[in-house]
Specification:
Bound molecules: pyridoxal-5'-phosphate
Strand content: 15-25%
Structural class: alpha/beta
Helix content: 40-55%
Strand order of the largest sheet: 4-12-11-10-9-5-8
Distance between the termini: 21 Å
Low-confidence stretches: none
Shape: globular
């Protein structure tokens, strides 16, 4: 890599300064070759992007800290094309007049979900905020006590509702909410009944919640809105692949909900986005809310989302093309072969420094999707005589490229489920840095 003059000068000055300090504290001088090498290292370090690619070897398919869903290969050229040039983002090519950035994916979303209209904003938190601000400001929103969710610390249904100027009316108990609880809570101030998908916890045992159809019927009998925050928002039913049955967006729309919101970068497997689908007249009102300007999507996101949604036009292909779906439905036999191949590769290269074995284990869906669901996998276990599991895992995380692994019972585990093309080489390169620096 070539570096600019100011960067080279800064790296040399920094290296010499460090060396002077070392000498002052009584250390022995090093050769000028070593100093040049240190300056080069400092240069590389400074030139490295702060946001960079990491290898996710945790087996947690959707990890918000690791950027959630990786985009499909087919999405990337579309993103690059609109990012590197001009686009018809808000320009109608037919008429030559001003167009809408929200028009590019609306028809696709309607076709895929069966909804009348759709709108996409920055993320699902923004989608819920926009819906509450548009329809419940100054009014009441009725939510079951079993569904007062918190997602990732800063998104809590009670706080989002109060930020939008709506009053939260809690109904039912933590474990059970009945139709009559909603009925009794409705007053002249009620704006909407809101269902929230409990996407990162599960209430089990003596439980009851009100089905979307029932809640929608109650809302409509009283002339108020029925809204659902679906969280992950699946378009395909993955029950055939051993995953728990989750309500799809289509089923939720069909159940009669007026508006349904979900994330673009959870199970859908697209870019960060918040998708709202539902009745045309309501979506039109959302589009007229001035808050929308502050929640709007970027052109790269729209390009990635459009390509992601196109995969779903052919569900059988989507299972392979959309990385999150592919990882979730990858057969155990394939995972076994991948684990064995990775173990052979790492054992062959580092066999004298590491013990490398495969063992049966579990992967997690993660990212506020399918809580408590574990998928069988085959893991690669690494143990070193020279360092403990924590030191080995720290080394991998600090390596270039960084590799994020799991530790269980003092063993470093690599789960092939979340490894992408080229990751085996990246792991080998990272280990090289850790074991033979
Ligand atoms: C994840 C989640 C959110 C927040 O979605 P973001 O796209 O991360 O903003 C809101 N509600 C539910 C139920 C969720 O699962």
């Amino acid at each position: 890599m070539r570096h600019g003059h100011p960067q080279v000068v800064a790296a040399l000055q920094q290296t010499l300064e460090t060396e002077r300090m070392r000498l002052r504290s009584g250390a022995l001088p090093v050769t000028s070759e070593i100093l040049v090498e240190r300056a080069l290292e400092a240069l590389e370090q400074a030139a490295r992007p702060h946001l960079r690619r990491v290898v996710n070897a945790t087996g947690v398919v959707l990890n918000t800290n690791l950027g959630r869903a990786p985009l499909s290969h087919e999405s990337l050229p579309a993103v690059a094309a609109v990012a590197s040039g001009y686009s018809n983002l808000e320009y109608d090519l037919e008429t030559g007049k001003r167009g809408s950035r929200y028009s590019h994916v609306e028809a696709l979303l309607c076709q895929l979900t069966g909804a009348e209209a759709a709108l996409v904003v920055n993320n699902n938190a923004a989608a819920v905020l926009l819906v509450a601000d548009t329809f419940a400001r100054g009014g009441e929103v009725v939510v079951s006590r079993g569904q007062l969710i918190e997602i990732g610390g800063s998104f809590r249904i009670p706080e989002v509702l109060s930020a939008s100027g709506a009053r939260l009316i809690e109904v039912g108990a933590t474990n059970k909410t009945h139709p009559a609880d909603y009925e009794r809570a409705i007053t002249e101030h009620t704006a909407m009944l809101l269902r929230c998908h409990t996407s990162n916890y599960r209430i089990v045992g003596f439980t009851a919640e009100v089905a979307p159809e029932t809640m929608a019927a109650i809302a409509h009998a009283h002339g108020v809105l029925a809204v659902e925050d679906l969280g992950s928002g699946m378009l395909l039913d993955l029950a055939a692949y051993g995953l728990p049955k989750e309500p799809t967006v289509q089923e939720t729309v069909q159940a009669g909900l007026d508006l349904v919101t979900f994330s673009g970068d959870k199970l859908l497997g697209g870019p960060q986005a918040g998708i709202i689908v539902g009745r045309r007249n309501l979506v039109d009102r959302l589009k007229r809310n001035h808050l929308l300007r502050a929640l709007r999507l970027d052109k790269m996101t729209i390009a990635a989302l459009e390509q992601t949604l196109r995969h779903y036009l052919d569900p059988a292909r989507a299972l392979h093309a959309v990385p999150t779906l592919e990882m979730l439905t990858r057969p155990l036999e394939t995972l076994r072969q991948e684990a064995e191949s990775l173990a052979r590769r790492l054992g062959g290269r580092f066999g004298s420094l590491l013990r490398v074995e495969t063992l049966d284990g579990l992967s997690q869906v993660g990212g506020g999707s399918l809580p408590g669901t574990f998928l069988p996998s085959v893991l690669v276990a690494l143990t070193s005589e020279k360092m403990d599991a924590q030191a080995l895992s720290d080394g991998l995380r600090l390596a270039d490229p960084p590799v994020v692994a799991r530790i269980e019972r003092d063993v470093v585990l690599l789960d092939p489920r979340t490894l992408l093309a080229g990751d085996a080489e990246r792991i080998e390169q990272a280990l090289e840095g850790v074991l033979a620096p």
